[in-house]
Amino acid sequence: MNKHKLPTGVDNFHKLVSNDYLFCDKTAMIADLLENGEEVTLITRPRRWGKTLNMSMLQHFFASEVNGVSTAGLFDGLAIGKIEGGKYIAQHQGKHPVIMISFKDVNADDFQEAYDSVYELILEVYSSYAYLLKSDALNGIQLRQLHTILSKQVNQAQLERSLKLLSQCLYQHHGRKVYILIDEYDTPINKAYGNQTYLNRMVKFMRNLFSNALKGNTALEKGLLTGILRVSKDSMLSGLNNLETYTLLDEAYSSHFGFSEMEVSALFKAKDLGTSMEEVRNWYNGYRVGNLVMYNPWSIISCINRSGCFDVYWVNTGNNDLIKQLLLSASDSIKRQFEQLMQGKALTVPVDKHIAFDLLDRDETALWSLLLFAGYLTFQTSNLSLDNDLYDCIVALPNQEIRRLYNRFFKEWLSSKFVDQCVYNAFLEHLVVGAVPLFVEELSLFLRQSASCFDTQFSRKSEGFYHGFVLAMLASLGRTHYIRSNRESGFGRYVMY
Description:
This protein has 497 residues and is α/β, with parallel strands linked by helices. It contains 20 helices and 14 strands. It has helices at 13-18, 28-35, 51-62, 87-92, 111-127, 140-150, 156-160, 162-174, 187-190, 196-214, 261-270, 277-284, 297-305, 321-328, 332-342, 364-373, 400-415, 421-433, 436-450, 460-477; strands at 40-44, 65-66, 69-70, 98-102, 178-183, 220-227, 243-246, 287-289, 292-294, 347-351, 378-384, 391-396, 485-489, 492-496. The strands form five sheets. It has a five-stranded parallel beta sheet, sandwiched between helices. The chain has a three-stranded antiparallel beta sheet with strand order 10-12-11, covered by helices on one side. Strands 2-3 form a two-stranded antiparallel ribbon. A hairpin with a 2-residue loop joins β2 and β3. α6 crosses α8 (162-174) and α15 (332-342) packs parallel to α20. It starts with 12 loop residues before the first helix and ends with a strand.
């Protein structure tokens, strides 16, 4: 634990270490990466969990300089320097060329725009190694290929080989194999969800880019990718049969992303905040990673930065529309299970480490997997299924921040069914105070207007609609009232009491 300023949004390791920031030392991750035998590794974590910062840390460790600034001495006094007498620094620090590229800002509306964004990122990486154009170690063909890419004269197939070309040129020039670090590898396809043509073209492009760079590349020392999801086997990573994946379910690397209880306590203490740790746990803890329980780092830093004020920090850092859309259009089965989650219960669901984007709206396993790995659920236990390669996970809502997000989803859905917010508020008020005639009148009008499209009394859609209504009531009144649904009574079931 170091220093005084808070690194809100800082994802450059040199800036973090050199500018008097308060930070948690995660450099022990370097030793784990070096000791693991995998040639190519993928680590998945939710957004804003320190992935980009850790990739910057690795870049600064292996490279002798980054953006023209020497990395010598940057790791002195940090955890990696204290492991086995500092052998990792002596043997590896500043000893390798590094290709570092982050796709976190590729957020395009169509394939061409996304392709152009990726090309610009690759040009930025190439520009960092412009000295290769004068290298005596490269042959004429390689020099012409480098110049063609820098001149923006390549076709898609040539761009797909660009990272491999750069790694081979760096290897020949320096005589040392190359680390390739690819941050937020899955971001380019997130925006393509719902547009099958865009998705297919983007997946093919990125698959070829990654396969060329990371498979059968004699210039590669190690490759590391980070992202939120492990996209399905037949998708973007299908060409990488040398890939080892570590998700939230795995113990490896579990302490290197997110904050432990000890780290959080030390951060609050360093800022002289007397904030109740019980409240901090309630708001931001609850994420299980391997065998550890970790805190959401973005929310912790934001909370400390605001003198211990609790708020929904992490959920407001990204677009939650996809999650909202999938939940509100989910099956009756999903909605019934969410009623249990909203009541503070845990339940067993199937989880697949490989997520198929094109199945999210019709495959319950894909949806549960997305919610878990993207940080909208946590797991209490996980066991490999006896029948297939899925995991049987007991899942729950991790904390107050996520609960409030779901409350907002379902409350917004219910309030949108009313003429205006005042009518919606009156509807709830009449229920709470026991104004039964007024409530019944408003409920009848609501059902006639909102559910009239259902032709049969017990159709699948109508059943799902009523479960959505129950979820909205849980979101609106669950903090002050007990709400239960689908309880047996007499010869049937009543929906809610």
